[in-house]
């Protein structure tokens, strides 16, 4: 794959309010998890570990920020960089091209397309500038050799297909840039699908969404239904020729939130061969104070998500956010809340259909699992709950790579079918 080295101007969104909530850690009643033993640390480092939803590309465009330097979540709210990946044994994953949803008109949609391409370029720039630290992955089979070489695995994914506009075939261009997983919608319903957190318009996937799903199958892109409605998931399970994934979702039986999935859909997902990647957001109800809500709303109005920030503006944003967290501390979930979601999914569908997509740098993180440096705690907790090496290996990477390999196989079959028709 050609690596794009030209650096382009890109909108620099501020860090999400959920991620920056980690800047302040008020006292909580829930206990922190025990530190992993040396043996558990060694075991974790031996695994191939991939996270299916890294929002870290948002950090790449922050002024003065470097993926190669160690940062602290208490300082700038970021959760992923190379030193912390090394400490936490994270081998890489799917780096998200995220576009915040805007108006569904041609002007805004074209701008969203350019924004998404710029975000893809930023990811390629990261790899090109640090070839000893990162490598682009084209196929499922690339992940293990890249990790064995000491580099971090970089698959690309799309969160929110809105930038594709009215042309699902544009996905082919993003596929050429390394996209191997793509979601349909985000917090708002768009032209492709109903969102789980917005009023329905299509009763699932739209006609264009059905076309986009077919395009994913043709290209070998894994369909991602996180953020999409239950009815959209039903459509994808019915129509997709390959298993689908929920790249960063939780369990509704543990916390009844529309972003999470109920047990019936969990079983349907598993029956189709798919995987739920458990995140660390929406793991339990977290009622916040009125003062905090109002202060955060004022901050968001001052610095909207897609606002271009100068160095001085970002410093001001962080200072204001620190004050909010000091004056109105956030009620936060803990490690046990995250594990409750993970263990519930495992109990319902088993280790062949569960993985991990924490939503780092996009709102993820709980007490005791603040950034990627803490990931050995997850492996240790799985072992202490009776899961062995083979199952944990599936959870950390085997399942998502199986789904990606199935998508590749379907794309090859459709390509051969097309050549035969010629």
UniProtKB/TrEMBL annotation:
PROSITE patterns documented for this protein: PROKAR_LIPOPROTEIN, RENAL_DIPEPTIDASE_2
Lineage of producing organism: Bacteria, Pseudomonadati, Pseudomonadota, Alphaproteobacteria, Sphingomonadales
Short name of one Pfam family: Peptidase_M19
Entry keyword Coiled coil: no
SUPFAM superfamilies the record matches: Metallo-dependent hydrolases
PANTHER family: DIPEPTIDASE (PTHR10443:SF12), MICROSOMAL DIPEPTIDASE (PTHR10443)
Keyword Signal: yes
Name listed for the protein in its UniProt record: Dipeptidase
Annotated signal peptide: 1-29
Keywords, in A-Z order: Signal
